[in-house]
Amino acid sequence: MELYFWLAACGTLAGVTTVLFGFGGGFVVVPLLYHLLTHMRGPETPAAPHAMQIAVATSTCVMIFGSAMATAKHQRAGSLDWAVIKPLVFAIAAGSVLGAATAAAVEGSWLRWAFIAYVSLTVLDCWLRPGFLLQPAREARPARARNALTGIVIGWIAALLGVGGSVMTVPLLRRRGVSMTGATAMANPLTLPVALAGTATYAALSWGGMASLGAGYVGYVDLRAFLALVAGSYAGIRMASPFIGRIPDQVHARVYVGLLIAVVASMLIG
Question: What is the value of pTM for the model shown?
Answer without folding.
Answer: 0.77
